[in-house]
Design brief:
By secondary structure, this protein is α/β, with parallel strands linked by helices. It folds into four domains: 238 residues, Spore Coat Polysaccharide Biosynthesis Protein SpsA, Chain A, CATH 3.90.550; 174 residues, no CATH class; 169 residues, NAD(P)-binding Rossmann-like Domain (Rossmann fold); 174 residues, Rossmann fold, CATH 3.40.50. It contains 31 helices and 37 strands. It has a nine-stranded mixed β-sheet. It has a seven-stranded mixed β-sheet with strand order 3-2-1-4-9-6-10, sandwiched between helices. Strands 23-21-20-26-27-30-31 form a seven-stranded parallel β-sheet, sandwiched between helices. A hairpin with a 2-residue loop joins strand 7 and strand 8. This is Glycosyltransferase. Keywords: Transferase. One of its GO terms (molecular function) is transferase activity. It comes from Dankookia rubra. Pfam families: Glyco_trans_1_4, Glycos_transf_2.
């Protein structure tokens, strides 16, 4: 059979329907079922009140000659209303495309096409209803999909509710038998003839149309009849469902990108509903920074409608009841997204989450999950629960379970979170509990008014709309996601650390974050290995959000089978790692700074479109001097990273020696860890120039083996006397038991910039007898205020200290006793030669004055700009949701208990 497509049937001109008048073309692919084709054709020809309509039968190489013969008979009997096209057998998609292209060319005035399979039928008023909907809909409405009334295996299925692209991504509820506006085809979508041959081709077509900017509209009670048989193309496709879903997701990966899903979720299905004490209305949001407030009675009606028709009506999955002060504190401290992320996870296994905020006795943030069924929730300023749990409370407000909210009876399955913050915190109140009780009563009253009314008679086979976003995320390997919505023109970057203790590494991250924020980035701190961190105002000033997690697989390391002796991570195989991915997936870029277990997340993040960088600060060593640690682990995952940040030339050369590609390495040198006013620097230099008295020696850092704390103790013991005054500031962090008995009092760590400046201004000499280092910020900070440095020549210290010019370097390859003797001799020599000491201090200040973070970060900034352009469009076209009244659609009849 030739591939040409002849039009068969040339009716007499006088009887022919003029093709120029055709408004709707009905495309009927036909293969293998000639006995059913007459029913389909007859149902088209029997349409009442419809505009001029033509049926185009596409004989897709049917082996039965009856198919063409029947179509010819109808073409002869109904001139100009029935056409027959014939082609080689190429499949359903190709037959639909053939009919489409013919109809668009043959009927220039046709405003829409309808696809009717040869074994289905239409009731007489279907096209008239569809035509009326087309005329009333805005241009962006691309297709009109019906409810499905099945015959054969009889069933009546509902497809109602506002159109949701998010729901369509998860499951296809738009039947191929839909009226499609001409403009959709003009934009390019066609039925796929290559990838989706085995099925789901109509699903693919609707997603193409959605990506072209069109949306669907439900056509209620239209009269579409679908023949359901136990064996069909649909049942064959369902047997390959997993394979076809994979193909579909690959074809439409942009719709499933994390940022695109977030944008859709915010527009169509906000995840949270906030009831705030003493404030009217309910705020609906995905991102707490971008909420829409609606009236509480309207929202209650939505909750009830969603309980009655969960596949058609969306209600936020999580309800948040809060007092104003704790809510404001969480916002100010950038902690609200973390709380919402934790709540989403915990509500999988708990009925409620209660947050208590307490004052910490130290500058530290702590986050603790407490399983305490005996504790009352009246003192929790914030309560969170699922909307289904809230509706169950309303279903029986007199139940013991509801009564237990006052604490008289322990309420099971409550997760209690305790957040510790330094400084004043809001006093505990019962406002959130009273608000919850008031909402239960209001919902119970609303339910009572609808009790006994009939519910929808159609079966809604779709899943809950409140769960669609979760299912879409699960399809790409994400669990709970941080509720952060992308903003057009803004970029997001995450900083991933194992701990946060305000040491040099953390200061580097904060300063880098501050530079990026000044350039328009939104910055997010993620601490992967702990539920506590040191805290200060600099944190909220540096980051847009702060998230702590622990126990999501970050500690699963493989020690016995590693990479060249280094450990590898098994975090990627932990089911909980999907939640960790969800904290980072909203970012355009992520920098992993020594979070060793999280190396296993890098490849999955990169597949989601996130640009991922590793950051290396030093090559660590064991107590026996053997290299080990994060740099060795990163080398095992190098292929998954877009780039690797190194802070020194020494470290860059080490990475090249380990086989890391040169073009992946970005040299990002360190600068002082905090800003100091020039006047403060000048004051310190002037004071030191005229200072007399004993030589002031300072150690500032961790009291651990890496820092050579045993060497420091021996040096202090050997230099004690009237000519030397020593101060030691710090604490043991690594827990390696290396702290010896020091002969001077140990002062607690200092974080405040003014206090640090005071320490450096006090000192004449900073001593750092480390066993291994990177580029210590404490050296750069001391140098800035004119303090000379004596340090072991390890790591990249020689890149920031010139021996004899602005400091003293002690060779690291000497015996331990010789190293201690060198430090002791240096202190005695400089105590006696103040002129040499002052010259070193002045040279050090001059060196440090030339350093600033933006200059040091130029290579990184350029790479980020190249990989993530500064003007980032919204990921997908976001529809305008017109739902001001927030009540159930007219076809949803309220009923009794859900």
């Amino acid at each position: 059979m030739p591939d040409a497509l002849p039009v068969i049937g040339n009716p007499p001109a006088a009887a022919a329907q003029d093709p120029a008048t055709v408004a709707i073309a009905v495309i009927i692919p036909a293969w293998g079922q000639p006995g059913l084709l007459p029913e389909a054709l007859a149902s088209v020809l029997a349409q009442r009140g419809a505009p001029p309509t033509a049926a185009v039968v596409v004989d897709d190489g049917c082996p039965s000659p009856s198919t063409a013969a029947i179509a010819l008979q109808y073409a002869a009997a109904h001139p100009g209303r029935v056409f027959l096209l014939r082609q080689r057998n190429r499949g359903l998609s190709a037959a639909r495309n053939t009919g489409t292209d013919f109809a668009l060319a043959a009927f220039p005035q046709a405003r829409a096409l309808f696809f009717l399979d040869a074994d289905n039928r239409l009731l007489p008023d279907f096209l008239a209803r569809a035509w009326a909907a087309l005329g009333a809909a805005p241009p962006g409405t691309g297709w009109f999909y019906p409810d499905i009334d099945e015959f054969g295996a009889a069933q009546n299925c509902a497809c109602g509710g506002d159109f949701s692209l998010l729901q369509l991504i998860v499951q296809n509820y738009c039947e191929a038998g839909s009226l499609v506006r001409r403009e959709v085809f003009a934009a390019g979508p066609r039925f796929d003839t290559a990838t989706m041959k085995a099925g789901f081709e109509d699903w693919d077509f609707w997603l193409q149309a959605a990506r072209a900017g069109f949306r669907g509209q439900h056509l209620p009670e239209a009269g579409f009849l679908y023949r359901r048989r136990p064996e069909s193309m649909l049942s064959a496709a369902e047997r390959q469902r997993d394979h076809l879903l994979r193909l579909l997701r690959e074809r439409h990966a942009p719709l499933l990108a994390p940022r695109a899903l977030a944008a859709l979720e915010a527009a169509e299905a906000p995840r949270f509903a906030l009831f705030e004490v003493d404030r009217p209305g309910v705020a609906l949001f995905l991102d707490p920074a971008r909420a829409e407030t609606v009236e509480a009675p309207a929202f209650r009606r939505r909750l009830l409608a969603a309980a009655q028709a969960p596949g058609a009506v969306h209600a936020p999955a999580i309800c948040l009841l809060a007092e104003a002060e704790p809510l404001a504190l969480l916002r100010d401290q950038r902690l609200l997204p973390m709380l919402l992320w934790w709540a989403e996870r915990l509500l999988r296994d708990h009925d409620m989450v209660a947050l208590e905020i307490v004052a910490a006795d130290r500058p530290e943030l702590s986050f603790e999950l407490r399983e305490d069924p005996e504790a009352a929730i009246a003192g929790s300023g914030i309560l969170l629960l699922g909307n289904e749990r809230l509706m169950r409370f309303a279903a029986d407000p007199l139940s013991p379970e509801v009564a237990s909210l006052d604490g008289e009876v322990p309420l099971p399955r409550i997760a209690r979170l305790r957040l510790g913050l330094p400084g004043p915190v809001p006093a505990a109140g019962a406002g959130a509990l009273r608000l919850l009780q008031a909402e239960i009563a209001a919902l119970a009253k609303l339910r009572a008014t609808s009790a006994g009314l009939p519910g929808p008679w159609r079966i809604d086979w779709r899943g809950k709309r409140s769960g669609m976003a979760m299912e879409a995320r699960a399809a790409i390997g994400l669990g709970a996601t941080l509720p952060v919505l992308p903003v057009a023109g803004r970029r997001d970057i995450g900083f991933l650390l194992p701990l946060f203790a305000f040491a040099g590494l953390e200061k580097v991250v904060m300063r880098q974050a501050q530079v990026l924020r000044a350039r328009g980035w939104r910055t997010h701190l993620v601490v992967a290995g702990a539920l506590r961190m040191e805290w200060g105002p600099e944190v909220a000033e540096s980051f847009n959000s702060v998230t702590l997690f622990q126990g999501l697989g970050e500690g699963r390391l493989e020690f016995d089978i590693g990479y060249f002796g280094g450990t590898t991570s098994r975090m990627g195989t932990d089911p909980a790692a999907a939640d960790a991915m969800g904290v980072l997936a909203h970012c355009d870029a992520v920098i992993n700074t020594h979070a060793a277990g999280c190396h296993a997340l890098v490849a999955p993040l990169r597949r989601l479109g996130v640009k991922v960088f590793g950051a290396l600060h030093l090559v660590e060593r064991t107590p026996w001097g053997e290299p080990h640690g994060n740099p060795h682990m990163l080398a095992a995952y190098e292929h998954a990273y877009d780039g690797v940040l190194v802070i020194s030339e020494v470290l860059r050369r080490w990475c090249i020696g380990q086989g890391l590609p040169r073009d992946k390495l970005l040299l990002v040198r360190n600068a002082p860890g905090y800003a100091t006013a020039p006047a403060r620097v000048a004051e310190a230099l002037a004071a030191r120039a005229t200072r007399d008295g004993p030589l002031r020696v300072l150690f500032l850092g961790r009291l651990d083996a890496q820092k050579g704390i045993d060497r420091l103790a021996a040096t202090i013991a050997a230099t004690r006397g009237p000519d030397v005054a020593c101060r030691v500031v710090g604490r043991e962090v690594l827990g390696d038991g290396a702290r010896p008995l020091l002969e001077v009092p140990v002062e607690p760590p200092v974080q405040d910039a003014a206090a640090l400046d005071a320490l450096y201004a006090w000192a004449d000499l900073l001593v750092l007898p480390s066993r291994f280092e990177g580029v210590p910020l404490v050296i750069l900070e001391a140098q800035r205020l004119g303090c000379a440095v004596a340090a072991t020549d390890v790591g990249a210290v020689a890149e920031i200290v010139a021996d004899g010019a602005d400091g003293v370097l002690v060779p690291a390859d000497l015996e331990e006793a010789a190293i201690i003797d060198r430090f002791t001799g240096t202190i005695h020599r400089l105590a006696a030669d103040r002129a040499a000491l002052r010259a070193m201090g002045a040279a050090a200040a001059s060196r440090a004055a030339a350093l600033d973070w933006e200059t040091c970060m130029q290579d990184l900034l350029a790479r980020l700009d190249a990989l993530v352009p500064g003007s980032v469009p919204m990921p997908v076209p976001v529809p305008v949701i017109e739902d001001a009244a927030m009540h159930a659609p007219a076809w949803v009849a309220p009923r009794g208990r859900p």
